[in-house]
Amino acid sequence: MKHETLAAKGAGQLTLYDLAHARAGDKGERLNICLFAYEPQDYDLLVEQVTEPRVRELFRHRGAHSVRRYLLPRLHGMNFVIDGVLEGGVNGSLNLDGHGKTQSFRLLSLPIARSGND
Who contacts 58 (Cβ-Cβ below 8 Å, separation ≥6)? Predict the structure, then answer.
């Protein structure tokens, strides 16, 4: 599937999925989500809009209490470490997805606003 850059997309609502892909992992109560822009020119917009507060709010209903973002500019990506979101982790949670693998798609559902310059 070919993904267009933000500049090539028409007006309308965008989600993070339109601009990036993600991969999730876990350790206990900690979820790790890596996010990478499909196109390098979209990276700055992702840095601007996919912030620690927005990600914490997105996962608040799951009990997230701490979010740290690590930028990976040479890879046009970022890594989020989210604490408290797995409700006990693999062995302690009654969730269908104790590993949190599907939570990367929750992040990709985040709305992205187009800037006035696009």
Answer: 106, 107, 110
Sheet of 77-83, strands arranged across = 20-27, 30-37, 77-83, 66-72
Are the CB atoms for 103 and 49 separated by under 8 Å?
no
- CATH number for the domain formed by residue range(s) 14-112: 3.30.70
Q: What tokens does 53 get?
A: 């507060």
Residues making up the chain, counted from first to last: 118
Domain ranges of the chain: 14-112
The tokens for 112 are 């992205």
pTM comes to: 0.81
- Tens-level pLDDT at each residue, the chain (118 residues): 455 555 555 556 799 999 999 999 887 788 999 999 999 999 999 999 999 999 999 999 888 999 999 999 999 999 999 998 886 655 544 454 445 677 899 999 999 998 655 4
